[in-house]
């Protein structure tokens, strides 16, 4: 009976040793199996019987799992569309060419009688026709001008004189002095001068108190016998003007001083006209 009890005790000890050896053989990262601190009591409950008491042992196993770190990269793209409008203004000077070549025109205005003429007559009206040629690449030009003027007499001679009349034909040089192009227009100052041939009648001449109308002469007193026929004389003219042009047209303002030989004196008048030339 004693041998049987000893055999059972040896078998239980062997089982416990095997379990302990298996637990120690596991991964070192695991927690070792806890061992019971309570002895297994083996005793006899009754004669001839052996009672074995089994205690429940709870084992805890801890596994350490290492994962490589995860790196998430978030790329954020901001797209900004920027439209810039740059206005670049480049001032390119535009040269408006001065017009040249053949032209003809017409002008109207007034005419003021000069010395030895204004004693008997009021300022009158005038019309004239210019025909000319402006040379290219040079400021020079030539012009022929024909005109007509009419003057009414003062009251003190109105009873013996009709309206004075003057025809003229001038041959002139034209010199363009300065020019500009404001507002895409041609602006030009010019001078002119040359010879003048004049036909006239009904003009009272006063030569230091000797009065004459045409070939009729009377000293100091009126009435003077009237010669109402046409007379003529050579002279000259000088003047200048301003032209404003666009396209093939020039508008101009001009004034001249015209002087010619009368019958007994030198006669003169000053035309002031506005006209247009067509090129």
Q: Which key phrases capture this entry?
A:
mainly beta; eight-stranded antiparallel beta barrel; 2 domains; 279 residues; three-stranded antiparallel β-sheet; Porin; 8% helix; 47% strand
Supply the CATH architecture of the largest domain: Beta Barrel
Task: Give me the side-by-side strand order of the main sheet.
Answer: 3-4-5-6-7-11-12-13
Level-1 CATH class name of the largest domain: Mainly Beta
Query: How widely separated are the two ends?
Result: 159 Å
Strand content: over 45%
The number of domains is 2
> What is the mean predicted local confidence, pLDDT?
80
Can you count the beta strands?
13
Stated plainly, the CATH topology of the largest domain is called Porin
Uncertain stretches:
22-32
Number of helices: 1
The gross shape turns out to be rod-shaped
Query: What structural class do the secondary elements suggest?
Result: mainly beta
**Helix-residue proportion:** under 10%
Order of helices and strands: HEEEEEEEEEEEEE
Q: Explain this structure to me?
A:
The chain has 2 domains: 1-20 and 40-59, no CATH class; 101-278, Porin. The chain starts with a helix and ends with a strand. It is mainly beta. The longest helix has 23 residues, at 2-24. The protein has an 8-stranded antiparallel beta barrel with strand order 3-4-5-6-7-11-12-13. It has one helix spanning 2-24; strands at residues 42-46, 49-52, 101-113, 124-134, 140-151, 164-180, 186-201, 204-207, 210-213, 216-219, 231-246, 249-261, 266-278.
């Amino acid at each position: 009976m004693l041998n049987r009890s000893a055999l059972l005790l040896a078998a239980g000890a062997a089982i416990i040793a095997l379990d302990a050896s298996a637990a120690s053989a596991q991964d070192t990262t695991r927690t070792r199996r806890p061992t019971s601190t309570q002895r297994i009591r083996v005793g006899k409950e009754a004669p001839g019987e052996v009672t074995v008491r089994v205690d429940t042992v709870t084992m805890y196993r801890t596994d350490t799992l290492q994962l490589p770190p995860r790196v998430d990269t978030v790329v954020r793209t901001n797209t900004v569309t920027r439209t810039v409008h740059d206005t670049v203004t480049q001032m390119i000077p535009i040269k408006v060419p001065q017009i040249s070549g053949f032209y003809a025109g017409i002008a109207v205005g007034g005419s003021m009688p000069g010395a030895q003429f204004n004693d008997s007559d009021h300022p009158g009206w005038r019309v004239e026709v210019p025909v000319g040629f402006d040379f290219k690449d040079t400021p020079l030009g030539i012009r022929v001008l024909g005109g007509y003027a009419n003057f009414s007499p003062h009251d003190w001679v109105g009873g013996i004189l009709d309206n004075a009349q003057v025809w003229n034909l001038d041959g002139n040089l034209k010199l363009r002095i300065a020019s500009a192009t404001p507002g895409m227009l041609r602006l030009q100052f010019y001078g002119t001068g040359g010879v003048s041939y004049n036909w006239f009648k009904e003009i009272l001449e006063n030569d230091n108190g000797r009065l004459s109308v045409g070939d009729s002469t009377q000293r100091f007193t009126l009435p003077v016998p009237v010669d109402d026929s046409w007379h003529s004389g050579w002279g000259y003219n000088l003047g200048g003007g301003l032209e404003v042009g666009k396209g093939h047209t020039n508008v101009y303002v001009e004034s001249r001083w015209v002087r010619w030989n009368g019958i007994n004196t030198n006669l003169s008048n000053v035309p002031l006209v506005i006209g247009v030339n067509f090129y």
